[in-house]
Amino acid sequence: MVDAFVVLNGEIEKLKKQQPTLKCGTVTSTSPFQVKFDGEDSSNTYKKPKLYTPTLNDRVCFLVQGNNYICLGGYE
Asked: What are the C-alpha distances in Å from 59 to residues 31, 35, 37?
């Protein structure tokens, strides 16, 4: 017999992953465009928006949904 709470918790976790979130971080490299997100230990490479030219140590914000990371640009 399947435990209804296990199934329900699994469905809730799937829904959480589908909801967009915001992540902020610091530019650690401009070519390639790399960002270290707040609270994380390593930098990853991302695509940058066409109208944004990152500089080292810029603060940036990303919209994250599932495995999609969209850079919204820099901020002060």
From this structure: 16, 9, 10
